[in-house]
Queue: 4 jobs
Job 1
Amino acid sequence: MQLAVLSPLLATGQIMPRTLRSASAKQDTVKQDSVRLAAPQGDIETTIKYSARDSIQLEATSRIVHLYGDAKINYGSMSLQAAYIKIDYETNLLTATSLTDSTGKDIGVPVFVDGAESYSAKRIAYNFKTKRGRIAEVVTQQGEGFIHSELVKKNEANEIFGLHNKYTTCNLAHPHFYISAGKIKAIPNDKVMSGPFNLVIGDIPTPLGFLFGLFPTPKNNRSSGVIVPSFGENSLRGFYLMNGGYYLALNDYIGASLTGDVYSLGGYDLRLSADYRKRYAYQGSFGIDHTYFKYDEADRGGSISTNDLPGILPPSERTYRVRWMHSPVAKPGKGRLTASVDASTGQHNRIAGYNSTADRLAATFNSSISYQKNIQNSPFSYSVKLRQGQTSGGLMNFILPDVSFGMTSVSLYEVLTKNVPTGRWYEDFTFGYNFTASNEISQRIEAGRNRFGASNRFGDVGVIGASAEADTISLNDFQALWKNGRRSATHNFNIGLGSYKLFKYFNLSPSVSYSERWVDRKFTYSYNPDSNAVDVDTTRFGRVYNYSAGASLSTNIYGTVYVRGKRVEAIRHMIRPSLSYSYQPDFGDPFFGFYQNLYLGEDTNGRPIYQQLSRFESGAPSTGLQSFLSFGLQNNIEMKVKAKSDTTGKTFEKVSIIDNLGIRGGYNFAADSLKMSQISLNMNTRLFKIINVGFTSNFNPYQTDSLGRNIDRYLLSGPGFKPARLTNAGLQISANLNPQARRSDTSVPSNLPTLGQDTNPFEPQYVDFKIPWTLSIDYTVNFNRGLGRAENTINNTLGVDGDLNITDKWKISYYAHYDLVEQQIASARLNIHRDLHCWDMSISWTPFGYVRGYNITINARSSLLRDLKLTKRSSSSGINYR
């Protein structure tokens, strides 16, 4: 082997190795030597570059190079740095070690880098021909985990084999916990495998372990693997293993999991869920749930109070639930297919409600699949929707399909004349249009009984009377369901008349609206005295319309008082009075034909009996003439004060005294009595940037009889001056006492994301130790006046919510509501959290409320070892045994 480039000193062969100087000694002034070795014919594939700060020694006969002091070698994608490196060209072996200084401290610990992998060890041996290595006392990182090994071998496939290992996610040199394994094999960016292992916490071996270990370490953080279940107890279904199963990472875009629950008192749950995502295109999720619920009282050895159950439960039940969410990325000129599907069998949510508060409290579930597109360079758009609604009792409604076509509001002047507006009053007129056609199918079977208690005689398809619900829908019922379906088309015309200035200070905004609805059935009633029944004839087409007109008038009034004090410069009062008038004809008049006054015979005194019936199932406008004048008065009071940070006295800031103080009411000129509406008085403000105050109230201007009913006589007409009587009021005061709230605006933003499904209240949540303490207090009082002789009711509660860092590792959070009227705690929760560096400990206790119990969890913080945890929990779900 020949040296292509040699330093002059090496050429003479006079350089001899020297011992390293101590760390406190003066730095060596010898210029760093470097040698570049060209790739000859043989085992070396590319050029080897090496250098040393202290000295380089070449043994030509044995073909060995010694590098002393900050030695470095670069060979392709491999690099090595250490205090001492030996290159043996006969055996193709690189050897690197650290050296000790005069104090006995190791310096120049070898660092080996091969591609993206990096190793630090006391001694490294690497064969650059076979690409195999042997590393002693090494710490390697694989994903989120660290492997401490006494001895590591590395093969040409970059796989690592360790002897006497510690596998942990703690990044300290002496980890708080680790998995002790005699042998470990690590495949970079794939997984870590081990033989028999056990868990060691604080250098104390525990019996927790297994015959083998498998820890995925994928580069893209997506990998298939087993989902370890959690253990617990539920008073309704017994002991359980929950959320155990398998996760399958199909590719970078799709992942699926199959999980289940098993209960000791019988029953099980199965869940299949998948999520998918394509960047810049769409994302979504899909899931199917199956529950087998078993409720056998004999298994419990006692009875259960049905007063504590939200409904009577069946002895056994199989239920299903399907969910699908799909959301595309909006692109100009492209259509959007969105889906939000949530459908289940009738009993599913009642049973699932014992594990999920959201499922238990949900009254309805709605699903929709829609395609929507805006036509570019035009005001037109269209959409097609498939919708389904379901109540908690299982009643389903389908709309198949719901087709819409719309036109956004456009200026009539620009469309008709193609001219640029010049500011004339009529140029602000706009027109918009929306058309919707739908077909509604309901899981509802009409009974042959009308609202009068007599059986109906249906002409064609009569639809009047009570309904009974079916438990399920089958294909055999489809023809009947389609026949009883409801088809309609709605036209909405959006007419804008602009806004105008009157007398320089008033804003006038007139308005007019018109809508029309076409339906597939219209009823005509006739009374048959012989059978005391109502005959119903059905017409296949009906047309109903609605229109109204109105106008609003408003202005702003400002008043300023200049104080010119030390801090307060001025106080400003702003008043916003407003008047609005709306008119709608009496659509119950026979002229319109929307309602029918049906003659039902005579009473005992010989007087005729009439009843007004709508000739349409739904969508008929309200009866009665509407000529309504509403009024409002909004107030805002604020101060102009000198800024504390300004020493010149020329910088001011605004301080609000009352954000809003408003009074609203109305008067219906067309009503035959009780024309005045209730009067509302509301106020809200924020004090000292931390206290929010809100007040709401309603007043009745009329006198009442002994039963609490209004009579057509104002309170002002009675004895004394009493303009109105308070009917209900509410006061809410909340304060955020965290010092950070004084320095920042804590108002709630308007673009908060929607909340997802609630999590288990006993599961440990994320805790931020950077905030030393928080404290929020809220006080609420509500008053409702009883009708007639009924007593007034007052609700009075005090709540507190916050947390406290006892130390930089301990945090306590708390929440409680106290009912001042009942003098008892309505709800409370206490959490204790301990930061164990690479571990977390969480204790949660909920002594009051529907779901009561406790949870103690000690778990590894890393997501890689999230199933490595100890949990003890108990919950009662509000059910008491007798």
Job 2
Amino acid sequence: MTELKLADLHEEIKKATEKSIKNNHRFMVFLCSEDHDRLINLSKKIFEYYLKICPDCIPKGFRLLLAGRTRFIEIVNNTNLFNFVKNRKIHFKESENVLGETYSALVIDLTEGFNPNDLGIIIETIEKGGIIIVLSPPVDKWNNFISKWHKELVSEPYSIESVIPRFYRRFIAHTLEAKGTIIYDADKSKIVKRFQEGQREDEKEIVIPERRNIKKKLYKLCATQDQVNALYEFETFFDRKREKKVAVITADRGRGKTAILGILTPHLISRMQRVLKRAIRIMVVAQTPQSVQTYFRFLTIALKRHGFVDHKIKESSGMITVVTGKHLRVEYVVPRRAIAEARYADVVIVDEAASIDVNTLFEILKDTRYAIFSSTIHGYEGSGRSFSVRFLKRLEMDESVEIQKISLEEPIRYAKGDPIERWLYKTLLLDSKPAALNEEDIEAIKDGKLEFEYIDKDAFIENEDLLYDFFGIYVLAHYRNRPSDLVILFDMPNHIAFRVSVNGKTVCSLHVAIEGSIEEDVIAKMSEGYKPKGQIIPDVVLKHHWDYSFPKYKGLRVVRIATHPDVMDMGIGTFALKNLLEWAYTEGYDWVGSGFGVSSELLRFWSRTGFIPVHITPQRNEISGEYTVVVIQGLKDEIREKLWSLNSDFVKRVVEYLSDELKDLDFETAYLLLHSLHKSYDAEKPKLTETDVSRMEKYIEGISLYEYVSDIARPIVRYYYLLSDSNRVKLDELEERVLIQKCLQLKSWWEFEELLKEGRVYNLMHSAIVKIWKWFVSG
């Protein structure tokens, strides 16, 4: 393509470059064609022109990021097209490796489609004044574009022909409207969309406070006044008025919250070391080591500036995981390990806390005096707004905890008002929020004026308000929202949506997947280890109960159900499930189920509507720290009978697991699982010798100790829990707590803490066994 034909595009790029540099914004150039080679060669020419017209703004450390799938990476590697500038090439599947990094420009290949999670992460690495060159198929192709990523997602027995690319349709529609974007048809040498300048917002001048305890050298590492202000907040971090001190930092992505934690850490170490006169241990908790590499990079710089010159760095798979020195040990740990080791840390730092289960966060906090939590408000790891609603509200109820809240608003890579960020947030729905409810709406909910409805997914594309309200509830109610969730619901044929509304406003959102209806030949493959995509519950039932008939039945799996945070605990979720069951029955489905990270709260919610547990993972998720439970409700008599049998077998396993894999399961959840039994398990009654009876009677009389009859008590207690509630003697809650934890979970007496201090635990144990013994010998 000649320079003459590119003259108009060059002029547009020149204008975009000048305006973006002036405003400290970024801009994007979509190059569209069916010819992939043409796009790659054109992108090189455009990038060379960009470098030519703005040499004064290019820093010494200029770095180009090249991102795409295998075809693109192989071409740029083999041709060396971009080797005239320092660059890094990444496959989309490696996108999380660049979280927190900064690049000067980007060439990204979307010609084979993309996962929106990757798009968000990669684009957000580009700094102010940077050009983002996008290799794209022709604009009109996006409306019917089925990508390789769709092929990876589509569930059996559905095929790729059933996929409708609603997400890509919405993506290109928003791109055509976005400011800061040029769209160029390379096949016709025509600009389809011209550049529009974003609105500049003035940046704050960085002023370091005159009076400070934290060293000025650390303040100088801050890139924005927001970061300076955040660091200053920690001047009083150790001025503790209550038993615990917790700082919470929230920000949108790219505001430098992880960096500020690394800058701050040497001050924390120095301050505590002076008081405690020993080496200080800092525990850094996050889902993956990749997500805290920015923290460790800033930590190593800050340590030197603070005067800690003797530290050593330990790496694993090319990533920093431990920094040690004479006065310090800073170590990365996964959330599950942090629960066990937090008590040995002087300060616990949890990065991207929104991506970690709230119960796990509280377990980590339980034995911690000083903790710092950071969370992205709108991001790709989880929802910080959910973190605020679900974690902070609960934390604020604890009067022993002093909370210091800090927020960051200024972007560090570009100025506020950046049009590319706005395009990205809108396209990926990162800033969605639920409808505002007024008193009239709340009164209507109290009066039961709720509507349940199936949503045609095309309506989401036609009605942005409906879409924002629907997904806004997920942002506030769930902590693992990712942009890819939007694609799965939009595009996959077996995913459907429902909502509960009041006065036309969404107050509960349901994302549901169709499962089951599996053919005999596929079931045979599954029995040999094959895992069909999108068949979560049938696969669990087959492989953990070896029921070959269940996968043939057609069911619904509730992927997500979330209630508007302003009207929780008003029966809306239960209303939604009851109506979903009625809808499923009318439509001819055989069952409805769900799988979720278990908690007593969630288990009670599902149990209220008649769902029964049939499976629990015997190991906690290494990242989230949760056990996963599967619950199902049958819609026909034959399915109910089948599920009761599966549940009986499941409870029998729970009884055994509690002494091993589930030994650390909380009592409330264990209690609910044991009492979920709908049909007694066909268990043989333990046989006792005359000596066994005599020994037990001496314990009942108070002459012997539990330790001398535990071999008799445990089999009887296990047998007790294999019978349905109607066949068991009733115990009060504290008696049952001691019984389950001592006889089934084999806990030591010292683990009963308060009950032991009060001197009640032995009496409660005796009382429970007396009741069970009388029931046992009379039956």
Job 3
Amino acid sequence: MGRLLWGLLLVVLPIPALAQKKTALNTGWEFRRLDENVWRTAKVPGTVHTDLLFHKLIPDPFQGANEKGVQWIDKKDWEYRCNFSAPTADMASLEFTGLDTYADIYLNNVLIGKAMNMFVGKELPIKKYLKPGNNQLRILFHSPIAQDMPKFLQDRLVYPAGNDASDIPLSVHARKAPYHYGWDWGPRLVTSGIWRPIYLKTWNKVNLRDAWIRQQQLTDEQATLDATLTLDVQQEGIYTLLVKGDFETKQLSKKLAAGKQQVTIPFVIEKPQRWWPNGLGAQKLYPVSIAVMSGKDTLQTKQQRIGLRTIEVVNEADNMGTSFFVKVNGHPVFMKGANYIPSDNFLPRVTPERYVQLFKDMKEANFNMVRVWGGGIYENDQFYDLADEQGILVWQDFMFACTFYPSDKNFLQQVKEETHYNITRLRNHPSLALWCGNNEIAVAIKNWGWKDGYAYSDAQWMELLKGYDTLFGKLLRDEVKTLDPGRFYFPSSPISNWGKAEDFRHGDNHYWGVWHGMEWFEAFNTHVPRFMSEYGFQSFPDIHTVRKYADPSQWDINSYVMQSHQKSFTRGNAAIKTYMDHYYKEPKDFPSFLYLSQVLQAEGMKTGMEAHRRAMPFCMGSLYWQLNDCWPGASWSGIDYYGRWKAMHYFVKKAYEPVLISTVKEEGKIRTYVVNDGLEDASLQLELQLMDLEGKVIWQKSSPVKIKANSSAVEHSIDIADLLKGADSSRVILYTKLLTNHKFLTENVFYFVPAKQMPLPKAVITTDVTENNGVISIRLNTTGQLARNVCLMLEKDDTAHFSDNYFDLLPTGEKTVQVRTTLTAATVREQLRIMHLGNACKE
């Protein structure tokens, strides 16, 4: 109904010749290297790298060890051009939504503007430069390296940009995606180009530049809102401004003088339906159409979608320390999600379909929040539209991460333009939960040893601290307060460090004791903060993805190619191997090693996710590092570059279920918790079974439990000795299950010892593949033996997706899994490969 109404709104308002026209300039482009007079076709939006790749002038930077061989590109200047004609109108402009990064803009050989910030869109008036018929637009992109080198040479300070993969860290000087310069999960590929669309706009009399729909009050009876319109009036006159939707139309007729001005129109929505995060209710979105009319002529319309809800971030002292949690519509909500990085080093390659799939993946895995991390980009409009639709709250960082930044007048002016542009662009979205100034800079200042490590003098250090306070304590805070009042802002995440026990009682935390601190996974059970906004562990992608960048001669983690796709130089492969040797037996071959790295990551991260949820309301959020990849290689991601779910994302789906059953060893007892994220109490049946690896039940118990809304509680506790009664802990498992109205709800398996200590059988798994109405199902059974971490794969289909994978198949049960594939059932039957711990590891 919402989409139908949206269409009707557009039909109701007539669109005459006077209406604004907006045309994308996305065809007919050419590019060249400035020191060569050879023009070649170009794709816009695009990048220099991808255009060169299309013309086969460079090798694929993502394959083999090609990355360093294409790094000459960022040292050169590049030029793009196209021709266009413009319709007749009072006014005309070119809207540049993304130029990367240092660019001179020429129209008919006249310099009409300069770009200096990848994150800022520009609209330039062009009426006086236009010619009848054909017009030429040229954009000269200066090398970001050559452009910023003088700043480095002239500056009296070297900034601690440790993730800049160059001997000379220039990234801090550019308002450009920091990850382009390298990070510990991605390559150094410093791009240039027209990375977002360019539009030709023509209009008459008035240009509606912005419509800010601000919720003023929300009750069950009524929502009161303001529509604040920013207008650029070219011709003085009486205009009618309309706010239309599935509510009473509001209109205002007013005489407007020439010039830029704002007009506010209040309106009301009766009996409002609230917008809820995923898992707690519907994502009601109200379409709103803004129109500017002159007499009977509609000059311009702008469409928005709004969600009605209240969001409050509570960060205040309490009897447990300092809280950090999100309240939505008055209810504290445990945040479940991950940290997001850009989905490609070459951003225009991220298609609308990839964004849609990414949000489907998040929703299917029971996310209700995603953190847009501060070393990437402010995402495009589709990203936030999808977040609104899918009920995924957005934690939005400003684009600063892991280093000091300049604080001179020119740099601060660039940042102010950037924040103004992006706050006004994003503030209408109901999914936008909070703004954060930067990633990890505050905690780095206190704990990373920058002062001594970079030999800063006292005066230099004080200058850096003052610059930090100016940027994050004043400029960004003031911009949010002015442009998006009421939205929570804090200067830096995390608020507390992970080195001391006291740190975990205050605010959000990035816990890296596991991985960087080389603490075992069990530390997740004891190192639980008020809100975990970063934690993680690496794995490799599966063999399908590795084949994309490494041929069989390189199938060894110590090979040149595999090491070139491992960017965590300080830990990396050695850490994965150390943890793997601790918890598992040796894998039998390279594909088994890849599989085992994913199982290692998934099982370890499961420990953390469940610990955070068990600890609510002390802990009220779990955002792991990281959701996705920007290129193929080893990383902390749960979804690889090609969109394939690793083992971890399957585990996330279960660990983030609305109702979770979780068992842990605490104080000599085996305690089973039940966590309920819902807003209503739940009456359930709890079943527990202690069984051996062949399925013989040694002990069992069944009891009704009533789970309070939005709570975590111990529902069963027993001494380990009383439970085992002499049984060998390496040869038994505790299977737990919840039923609702006698129907299966959720389950979990608790292991008493690491897999390395278990005599896991080489279970034989039988399969039956069937197809019904185009859906292919695989039914699996074992011959009375436990099969742990069962992985399904189709040998020839690298796009296949299974509804469940890396699961434990109990000796007494069976499991049916659906597979999304282009293959027939008969071919699936032939190509199905099954791996589990019992057959993937050596004796």
Job 4
Amino acid sequence: MLRLWRHLTWPTWRDQPGRVVLAVVAVMLGVALAFGVQLLNGAALTEFARAARGINGQPDLIVRAATGPLTDADLVELLNRPEVAAANPVIEGRALWPGQETPQGTALSLQLIGVDPLALLASAAGARPLAPELVPQLDGTASPQGLGLLMGAQTLHLNAAAHRLLRAGQSTLTLRLPQPHGGAPRDVTFTVGGRIAAGNAPLAVLDIADAQALLGRLGALDRIDVQLAGGTDVTAWQRTLPARWRAMPPADEGARLADMTRAYRVNLGLLALMALFTGSFLVYAVLSLATAQRLPQWAMVGVLGVSARMRWRLILLEGAVIGALGSVLGLALGLGLAAGALQLMGSDLGLHGASSDSSALLFNQPLLAPAIACAALGLAATLLAALAPALTVRRIAPAQVLKGLGLPAGRAVPAWAGLALLAAGAALAWVPPLAGGLPVGAYLAMLCLLLGGLALVPALVRGLAALMGWLPAGALLMLARERSRDQAGEARRSLAGVLVALALAVAMTVMIGSFRESLQQWLDEALPADLYLRSALHAPLQPALIAAVSRAPDFTRVTQQRATRLRLAPGVEPVALTARELDAGGLPLVARWPGPATATPVWVNEAARDRDGLTPGHVFRAELPDSGGRAVDLQVMGVWRDYSRMDTAVWMHLPDYRRLSGDAATTELALTLAPGLTLDAARATLRRLGGDDIELAAAGELRALSLQIFDRSFAITVWLQAVALAVGLFGVIASQSAQALARKREFGLLRHLGVSRRALLKLLVLEAGLTGGAGAMAGLGLGLGLSTVLVFVVNPQSFHWSMDMHLPASRLAVLVGLAFAAAVGASLLAGRRALGADAVRAVREDA
């Protein structure tokens, strides 16, 4: 094998290194993207889980009230239980930081956490402190002495993200705190104390007594973190608690985020593997071209005694070397891409806070398993790509090849197999998603559609050749028709790369275009007002402000909205509930209940329909946790399209909500401007009425921001489409070159028979036009089929977002025209090289 490598493979690689380098680069890019995406996903989950553990601490159980807040009496009752070793009461809130703004230009809000220093001190005396990252640090380390800092009156202890916003030497900090029952916020000045390690976003910790007093929540608690005595059975003790408490193990926020983002991460990973998938066709083209160029050598060594098995193993070895080099370089490049992305976004992954440095964030996760998996994928892809050329070399008859009969005909794939694969793809598209919303059936359907389309290419070429019989007769036309009909199987191999790349590019173009068009229509429906107002503290708006805005002549309509929560069943986590005046618009429905309402009507998003079974007409009982846990009977009157979230959300008519809950608070206002009034004038009026305590957003600004985020999110897909299509087009050029070189003796014979070089070039153009047209048509048809699966199956199953199909005709025409022009241009380039004097000499050598 080494001698064969030295005499057959190495000279070709040495004389034509560019092709080998391109094949290695194709594998390298595919592996790098897959590995880099995996590392970034892992880093994001690791950092999010670390930040959540820092804030939530390490209790055995977190106790909350079944409805409403906990009280100090609940804390006393828990501490009196002999199984409780330590209990830390916690209250959470938000404050506005005057003078500080977010990158989006809105006022910065600071998260506040009130904790009990004595409870933390009691837990620190044990083996497992409850919340070590909430303890103020002395000399960069948390210690019991740091707990004493928490007892300072009106003293805030900031994390690194908040500390960076302080001016040099600043020792005090003024925050604007919300007040209960819609009271006017008030400014409070704090002393800046020590530093804490928790959190990525700006965060401050203070004594819980101060937090309760300053936030107007005396005697109220949000949660109690409980640490049990050694030997206590957590599950058994949990069952002894009264029904008014909800005790759950500390939520693994990393696992929760992993569940929420699983579909997105899988889709992004498969998108990254698209480059590796198309790169395998480039490897196939390079090895096929090398096989065609060395065909006489393969025949000669076959006559001299080299077995078919050794020839087959040598081609696979070439593929393995390309795959190994590409995989190793791809792993290094993927690591560099991930590190560069972390440096660009910050070690907090865009969360605008502080965390460990990017290198620690990158390497504090398992690297060996994903590296092995990505390298194995790269190697497997190249070995599969090398399999077809290896089988070709294994099947050659050396004596016939030496007589100039060219490459052996490949085994024909019957048309019924292609039709069966297409049928299987259509059937698999109906398979429900797995747990977590993974559309495995849809991806298998897309693979079957691609394979079925490839299998039907010969039949399509033969069909087009038959249609050419209706054209005026001519020698060149007859030769092109008969050659295309006889070598239809070769068309599948030569067009495989560009067909797959074109199909994927068409599918992604249609899916992205459909999504963007649907998003624009949704934004127009979901944002019917001109301007939107809410509290900068995300708290209820003051009644005086609502009344003043309603009286202002600048606005023809003021629509109130209440954002709150709804519990679909006892003991489950609440979901988002929005109560608004629905006659003002903003409800893009996709399904309606035609019958009468037998309970209070609500409208749910598609995630609620798919995940919770809330179909139109369904009647269910729910609880309003923010209104004392009142039980209400609701009926689903419709399903609305919701591109703003992937979780369950419910809308209710505002008068119905206020009647059921007794809650008259308002959290947002939707404002319609008077005719002729400018946005700047409206903003000035609202600033005069609400000051800096409000946030304003115009509908046009929200639309532009949403589309900007959409375009930025899908920018990588456009780049991957370009890479995949370029790889496929190069594969066409390489495949056409291989076929032209293998036909040297055929061209030489035609030259001896009197066919001119120009006529032979016309013949090649006719053949390339026939096969290229078949490939372009097949790629367009497959792409439309794949886009149908993406639009109507993958997106609804993964993200619970439906959309309407939209065909960007101009972009599709460019893609199809580019693929067709590449096939014809590649044939011309290869023909000019193959129709030289060597073709005539080849016939003389054969004689």
